[in-house]
Every structure is written in structure tokens, then in C-alpha cells.
Specification:
It is a single chain. This protein is an all-alpha fold. The protein contains ten helices and no strands. Helix 2 packs across helix 5, helix 2 packs across helix 7 and helix 5 crosses helix 7. This is HTH tetR-type domain-containing protein. It comes from Halopseudomonas salina. Keywords: DNA-binding.
């Protein structure tokens, strides 16, 4: 092969940095979620991404940084999906419904995400707050405002927006976690409808005031 052909081939093989970074992160998310942080070798990620190990280290100097970047990428996509679902929804009850369903739908499509969160909590708890909970805290006030609007509309028995947020948030995260680690792999979209029905309407029949 001539030097011109080699140069042309190399040029065709070049990839923009952002695209290469995305390729590496996709591979990292898959490998880390399947094998955990400790059992993962950077070479495995490089092989899956079809790049050299040195290329991975050029973007992410340590395995710790690569893992954190993978978790950050997942959290950004989760947040974006929920935000997109509620962006044009003004009614607070529908805002809650659409946000809740979008949250569950994300994990339905990306089951590897919950694995990453579990591994992060296990491996990096002493280093700092897991990114899932850091993101939740950053978004907390915005959701409290939604719950307060719902309370102000007169449709709620509970009048503490923080309590409502905590209960529904724990139900959502707990349901995703249990569904994954139990191996049930039920439809999270269906679970979302069931949870919303029980949270919003309860499980008991209305009590007859004359009884």
C-alpha cells in the first residue's frame, strides 16, 4: 500500500473527540455495569470501544475517572429524559405523572444504569455523595415546587410537599432497584402505572360516613 493510501485510510479512521469520547463511555457503561468497578480492566473497555488502551487514558487518565464519567453520562441522560417529558406540562398532577413515567421508562430502556448506581454506592461511598443522589438534591427544589402547586390546587390530602417528594421518589428508585436485583425484570412502565394508581388513589375504599 502506498504512503498516500495509508494516509487516506488513517484520515478516514479518525473520529471527532466528542464522538470518540461517547464511544468509550458507551463501552465503559456496558463493562462496568456487567462486571463491577473492581473486576473491570481498562483494556476490556478499550477492546469493546475498538480503540487502544492509550486512547482511553488520553480521555480518562484513571479508571476511577472513567467510571465517574460513565455514571455522570447516565445521570445526564436520565435527567434530560425526565425534563423533556415535563417541559410543556403545566398542570402539576400531569407534571408528576409524566415525570414519573419518564423516569421509569428510562430504566426500562437502560437497565445497566441501576447496576452502575449500585456499584458506585458500594465502591465510592466514602469518597463522596453518589451522583444519583447529588443530582436528586440539585433537582429537589424544582420538584418541591411542583408538589406545592398540587397541594395549592386543593387536590391533596397530604400538605407537606417534601414528604410527598420523598415518598414518591423512594418508591420510584426502590421499585427500579428491586425489579433489577430480584431478577424479575417486569415492565417498569407497567409498574409506574400501578404505583401512580396506588399513590394517587390509595388502596382502601372510601369510608361511608354513616357507618
Amino acid at each position: 500500500m502506498s504512503s498516500d493510501s495509508i494516509a487516506s485510510s488513517a484520515k478516514r479512521g479518525r473520529m471527532p473527540a466528542a464522538e470518540r469520547c461517547e464511544q468509550i463511555l458507551a463501552a465503559a457503561i456496558k463493562v462496568f455495569s456487567e462486571q463491577g468497578f473492581r473486576c473491570t480492566e481498562v483494556q476490556q473497555i478499550a477492546d469493546l470501544a475498538k480503540v487502544g488502551k492509550g486512547t482511553v487514558y488520553r480521555f480518562y487518565p484513571t479508571k476511577d475517572e472513567l467510571f465517574r464519567a460513565a455514571v455522570e453520562d447516565v445521570m445526564q441522560r436520565l435527567t434530560a429524559q425526565v425534563d423533556d417529558a415535563v417541559r410543556t406540562v403545566n398542570d402539576p398532577l400531569e407534571h408528576l405523572r409524566e415525570g414519573f413515567k419518564a423516569y421509569m421508562a428510562f430504566f426500562q430502556s437502560h437497565p445497566e444504569a441501576i447496576e452502575l448506581f449500585v456499584h458506585e454506592s458500594a465502591e465510592f461511598r466514602r469518597v463522596g455523595q453518589p451522583r444519583y443522589f447529588a443530582y436528586s438534591d440539585m433537582r429537589r427544589q424544582a420538584w418541591i415546587d411542583v408538589y406545592q402547586q398540587l397541594i395549592d390546587s386543593g387536590r391533596c390530602r397530604v400538605t407537606d410537599p417534601q414528604q410527598m417528594l420523598d415518598v414518591i421518589g423512594n418508591l420510584a428508585y426502590g421499585s427500579v432497584l428491586v425489579n433489577r436485583i430480584s431478577g424479575r425484570n417486569e415492565s417498569l412502565v407497567a409498574i409506574a402505572d400501578q404505583l401512580l394508581d396506588m399513590v394517587l388513589h390509595g388502596v382502601l375504599k372510601p369510608v361511608d360516613a354513616h357507618q
